[in-house]
Each structure stands twice: as C-alpha cells, then as structure tokens.
Amino acid sequence: MTRAVVVDDSHFMRTVISDILEEGGIEVVAQASDGEEGVEAVADHDPDVVTMDVEMPRMNGIEAVEEIMATNPTPILMLSAHTEDGADATFEALEKGAVDFLAKPGGEVSTEISAHGDALVEKVESATRADPASVEDVDTADSDTLDTDHGYVENPTLVVGASTGGPRVVERVLSSLPRAADLRVLVVQHMPDGFTGRFADRLDRRSEYDVREAEDGIRIGGGEAVVAKGDYHMAVAGYGNGRLRIRLTQDEPLHGVRPAIDVTMETAAEKVDGPLTGVVLTGMGSDGAAGIEAIKSAGGATLAQDEETSSVFGIPARAIETGCVDDVRSADEIGKAILDTIRDGR
Fold first, then answer.
1. How big is the chain by its Cα radius of gyration, in Å?
2. What does the angle CA 307 – CA 313 – CA 315 come to, to the nearest 5 degrees?
3. Which portions of the sequence form the region Disordered (predicted)?
4. What distances in angstroms separate CA 236 from CA 209, 216, 262, 344, one per listed residue?
5. Considering the domain boundaries, does residue 199 fall inside one?
6. Catalytic-labelled residue, pool 110, 126, 134, 163
C-alpha cells in the first residue's frame, strides 16, 4: 500500500486530504502542520509520497521541499492555490524538486477539494512512480544556450510534449536553443488553466525565444514559441510562408487530458510541410505516442527523453515502444539533439 505524509497548516485541509487518500487506498502515515514538521515526518516515516501545501508558517512548502530533497529525497506533490502568486510559488517548488502539483479548487482552505478526490488520488499515485533523484540532473537556472553556428534548415518547427516532471525539463530545453535556429516552437505541458500563462512567462524570461500562452487564431513565425493553454487542445490549423496558425478547442479530453500532446503533434504532422521535429519528455501515460508516430510518418525527426533523467518514464517509454523514435537522450542532451535534426545537409 502507498504510504503518504500530508503537510498543510490547516487542520481542516489535513483532515479532508487524509480522508480522501485513505478512501482511495493510500495509507496516511503522518500529518504535519508546517514545513519543519513535514521534514521531520518524512525522516521518521520514510513515506512513498508527500502532499505539500505551499503557504505555511515557520517553514513554507518551498523551503520544506528543498530540505527534504537534500536529506531524504521523496516524491512530493504540491497542493497550490489557484492564483498568480500560487502559480509562481508552485513553479519555484518544482525547481526545488517537487515532481508535480494539483491546484486547490477554491483557494488555500477549500471545501471543494472533496469533489476532486479522484484527481488527488490519481496525482498522488502518479507521483509515487517518480524518481526524485532524477530532478537533480536538470538545473534550468544554470543552463547555457547551445552553439549559435548558422547552417540550419529554413522554417523548422518543433513540438515538445511533457507531463509529470516536465516543467523543469522544458525550461532547460528551450533555454538551450539559440535564436539563430529560428524554430517555431509548440509546447504542450499537461497543466491546468491559470498556470500555463505563468509557465509561458517563465519560458520567455529564460530563453532567447518570444514565448506566450496560445490564443485561438494566432500565428507564430521563427523565433516564437507558444504554450498550450490549460483546458484547451492546441491544434495546428494552417501553415504558410513559414508561419503556423493555431486553433484552440475544447473537444473531449484525450487520454484523460486537455491539452493533449497527440492533438498538437498529429495536426502538426498533417499541416506542416517543412522540417518538423517532435520531442516527448518525462510524464505519466501514453499521450504523445500516436503523435510521434504521425510525425515520423510525415518524414519528421523524433526524440525522447531517457529513463535515467525522467521523473516518470511513461510518456517517453510508450513513444519508444512504437518504434518511431529516432534517438533517446538525457535531459541535458535533448537541446543538442534537436539542433542536430535541423542542421542543413544533415
């Protein structure tokens, strides 16, 4: 049975979260009311997973994540308020080593979380499959842009898909791509609405590319990137003169998610007649496998993150099993591998 520690400064939230997990077959071995108690509980009980609130007295969730990862690396799921400040704090926690997050419906102390019990149990079980040590291999803050030599093909398009553990790796990949490559970049990160805009802002600050959250009908050209908007599929609706036209839809979730990697990759394979590269990164599930097949069938290049540096080796593994992945690389090597696919005369 999965063993969990629940950390939250609200007694009400600790009780509700614990009840949800217990009803879902997860044993709650300890509760903690702040980060310091959470660190001690992890050391004492060696759980399989931790649910961690962000805003707490004495030691907040970000500080607790950093301490746990330094002393007793354990998969941590952040429970975040659905606010701009909550989003920023959540991304900081992911940088420190948390593997995933779930937005609390209704704020820090939420009576609505019970209605999302299945999602919480699923996220916790998914987090237990993560390798907390793998995040140490990816340091977005210190990443350097790769070589800026010219000699790239004209009008290349890159589609990147990721889920659990993905934000840090996506940041690392985009920050390593030189503006001279002139890519049109489409990013699909499994993430709820309200967080994708902040994620796009982070990518914009940390890369040479102009990054924004996708809007229906926008067009992007070389040196631009868009992040799929939470709760919307992002499809490539057209391509011409080196520019992509984006369509957002709220069609039914695919593989239980929206946005889905497959939607973006399959429509890119259908519409883009120039150089196309598809990349699948760390995450749970099989989303992206059909998209990689479609890109390969269209004559594009395909890459997957390796198991050693993936927090969860689900999405890359399912893509590799299709036989349509050209190369498997570590998180640090993905950026160079992307550039190798668009070298002129490769």
1. 20
2. 125
3. 126-152
4. 19, 10, 12, 25
5. yes
6. 163
Q: Which of 208, 213, 202 is nearest to 178 (CA)?
A: 208
Among the three residues 128, 159, 191, which one is the final residue of a domain in this structure?
Answer: 128
**Cβ–Cβ under 8 Å, residues 152 and 181:** yes
Are residues 119 and 28 located together in one domain of the fold?
yes
Other beta carbons within 10 angstroms of residue 115's beta carbon come to 11
CA 35 to chain centre: 24
Which of 207, 287, 310, 311 is catalytic? The answer is 287
163 among known catalytic residues: yes
133 lies in some domain: no
Q: How far from the centroid of its chain's Cα atoms is residue 7's Cα?
A: 23
Longest dimension (CA), the chain: 62
Instruction: Say if CB 221 and CB 184 are below 8 A apart.
Output: yes
- Which residue among 190, 262, 306, 310 is the active-site one? 190
pLDDT in tens, 120-165: 999 999 899 888 876 554 444 444 566 655 689 999 999 999 999 9
| Sign of the alpha-carbon torsion through 268, 269, 273, 279 | positive
Taking only the tens place, the pLDDT of each residue in 50-66 is 999 998 998 999 999 99
Residue type, 93: A
Q: Considering the domain boundaries, does residue 134 fall inside one?
A: no
Question: Which of 77, 99, 128 corresponds to the end of one domain?
Answer: 128
Q: Is 190 a catalytic residue?
A: yes
At residue 149, the pLDDT reads 59
DSSP sequence for 8-69? -S-HHHHHHHHHHHHHTT-EEEEEESSHHHHHHHHHHH--SEEEEESS-SSS-HHHHHHHHH
- Determine the pLDDT at residue 132: 81
**CA 55 from centroid of its chain's CA atoms:** 22
